[in-house]
Amino acid sequence: MVNDMLIFIDIARQIIGIGALLLGSLAIVIGALGLLRLGDVYQRMHGAGIIDTGGAGLVLLGLLLLSPDWTVAVRIALIGGLLIMTSPTATHAIARAARFSGVEPILSTDSKEKEG
Amino acid sequence: MPIKAISASTALMFGLWLMLSGHYTGLLISLGLISAIGASLIAYRMGVLDEEGLPLGLLIRLPKVSFWLIWEILKSNIDVARVIINPASARPQLVRVKASQKTVAGLVTYANFITLTPGTVSVNVDETKNEILVHGLTKSFCDGLADPEMDERVSALEGKSS
Amino acid sequence: MTLTLWFGVTLASIGVSIIIAILRASLGPTAFDRVLAVNTIGTLVVLSICVYGFFDGRPEFLDIAVLYALINFIGTIAILKFFRHGTLGDHLPPEDKHHG
């Protein structure tokens, strides 16, 4: 009885893990398409943001669920934490540097802010 | 000498060492402990063990907000994906967002949270006026920021002290 | 092991995305597009190192991925700093110091 339960939990873990991996792959491809298709640097950052959060998060969640033992899981969690702390900082640094060197964002006509 | 900050940083680093090492013999564990203490002392000498370099209260309260943050990130991921599929629907905006945080670490955390949710990127942080200039992909992302919920949650992370 | 198939699918989509990002890095048009694309490629390489470790059954690769994540971040910041100041910070003009 207990054994059946454990096997069921293991199978559920694997299915959720594979699902997270596939969703993450989809998010990564969509983010990369955004990097290619959107209009200017500032908009492309949102595409890169999908890769950094949704893509990386879901792929690492999938790997975490599929990891064979806890030392692997700890490393996956560490990589996830590092990416979550560093990627917004890097994106912000790029946005700030682009603005300071005079790259003006394309703004939509109904935007309230004209000069930042 | 701030014993509290040094011991907290030693505990953090030694915990990380224990999780990553995978070798648990007496000699190796004591070597790991010695290097954790040494690194903390060097960090103290560099002067980075203050409220800004090691915001303990903020780190301890971080898990409380993380589930809400993950949910927000998932929602805006889907919205941004929709814009990417149809790039003509992008309505980029620049807006200024008021921040109510009192410490620099709190302000940085708020700016990082804004950047972390796709669809909004913090372009410039003005720490004298407590304002963050944000680039949003469409109007609805910027309207989401006008709602002060994230601001309040980050301010709650700072705690009442300081 | 059927899991290998799914790791392979993930690796393939990461590879496609890296190619798209390389395309963006070569198209430009501004230098910041290229830095953004290179930063994204770095994130994707970290992920693909992780997935490849699982694909190959050698999770020791994860240690390399941890280091790569750190170096990718520091590299991006260093390149941006170099663009802005023309130096890596040893001789910053005094009024620019707090901008980092």
Topology record:
The complex is a heterotrimer of chains A (116), B (162) and C (100).
Chain A: H1 2-37, H2 41-66, H3 70-100
Helix pairs in contact in A: 1-2, 2-3
Chain B: H1 3-21, H2 26-46, H3 56-85, E1 93-98, H4 104-116, E2 120-126, E3 131-136, H5 139-146, H6 149-158
Helix pairs in contact in B: 1-2, 3-6, 4-6
Chain C: H1 3-27, H2 31-55, H3 61-85
Helix pairs in contact in C: 1-2, 2-3
Strand content of chain B: 5-15%
Fraction of helical residues of chain B:
55-70%
The average pLDDT value of chain C, as a whole number, equals 83
Radius of gyration of chain C: 17 Å
Overall pLDDT of chain B, averaged? Answer: 82
Assembly of the depicted chains: heterotrimer
Q: How many separate helices of chain C? A: 3
Number of domains of chain C: 1
Following the backbone from N to C, one meets helices and strands of chain C in this order, namely HHH
Low-confidence stretches of chain C: 96-100
Helix content of chain C: over 70%
Instruction: Report the principal-axis shape of chain C.
Output: flat
Brief rundown of the structure:
The complex is a heterotrimer of chains A (116), B (162) and C (100). Chain B has 162 residues and is mainly alpha-helical.
Could you describe the 3D structure shown?
The complex is a heterotrimer of chains A (about 120), B (about 160) and C (about 100). Chain A has helices at about 1-35, 40-65, 70-100. Chain A is mostly helical. Chain A has one domain. In chain A, helix 1 packs antiparallel against helix 2 (about 40-65) and helix 2 runs antiparallel to helix 3. Chain A is elongated. The mean pLDDT of chain A is about 85. Helices cover about 60% and strands about 10% of the residues of chain B. Chain B has helices at about 5-20, 25-45, 55-85, 105-115, 140-145, 150-160; strands at about 95-100, 120-125, 130-135. In chain B, helix 1 crosses helix 2 (about 25-45) and helix 3 (about 55-85) runs antiparallel to helix 6. The longest helix of chain B has 30 residues, at about 55-85. Chain C is an all-alpha fold. Chain C is built from three helices and no strands. The longest helix of chain C is centred in the N-terminal third of the chain and has 25 residues, at about 5-25. In chain C, about 35% of the residues are buried. Classes of the chains: A mainly alpha (about 120), B mainly alpha (about 160), C mainly alpha (about 100). Chains in contact: A-B, A-C. Chains A and C meet through helix 1, helix 2 and helix 3 of A and helix 1, helix 2 and helix 3 of C.
